Amino acid sequence: MPSPPFKSRRKTLAVLSLIVFASVAFGDRHWRARNSPLEDRPSTPSRDMDKVAPQNNSTVRVEAEVLTLRLTGFNPKQITRPSGRFLLVFDNRSGIQDLTIQLSLENNSARIISAPISRRVKGLRQLVDLPVGRYVLSVAGHPQWTCVINIASH
């Protein structure tokens, strides 16, 4: 079987090179977006506005606090916000698949939130309305992983 002409091979090589380049560029961009630290992501501020629909079907805007867990601990390690409702968003980037997230009032063993995080559920989104105080978000079995949440009066 005769080989294709030189120009045809060149065109095929050029098209394949373009496809490989585009795949690598897109893959790298996608990988960086998924694996960059939260504070390096320009499109994801630490406080997003999220829409939450209450019972009467009107839309209310609620602030969200995004906490990311990595093997080095929580990012951020502390937040301060005014009292009132907010969406607590927990993102597990630690690589550990079975965790239990706990939120409690500091110096109190009573849990306000205790939620398992498994292979299927990689995070948590919980609407909370905490009274003024100092709270600790922790991971069961990992006492070094904590985030302090300070709720101040308006």
Helix content: 10-25%
Give the name of the CATH superfamily of the largest domain.
Answer: Cupredoxins -  blue copper proteins
Number of helices: 1
What would CATH call the architecture of the largest domain?
Sandwich
Low-confidence stretches: 30-51
CATH topology tier name of the largest domain: Immunoglobulin-like
Mean pLDDT: 76
Strand content: over 45%
Order of helices and strands: HEEEEEEEEEE
- Secondary-structure-based class equals alpha+beta
Report the C-alpha radius of gyration, rounded. 23 Å
Give a quick account of the main beta sheet: strands, pairing sense, barrel closure: 5 strands, mixed
CATH domain class of the largest domain? Mainly Beta
Oligomeric state, counting identical vs distinct chains: single chain
Task: Give an account of the 3D structure.
With 154 residues, the chain is an alpha+beta fold. The chain folds into two domains: 6-35; 41-152, Immunoglobulin-like, CATH 2.60.40.420. Helices cover 19% and strands 48% of the residues. The longest helix has 30 residues, at 6-35. The model is unreliable at 30-51 (pLDDT under 50).
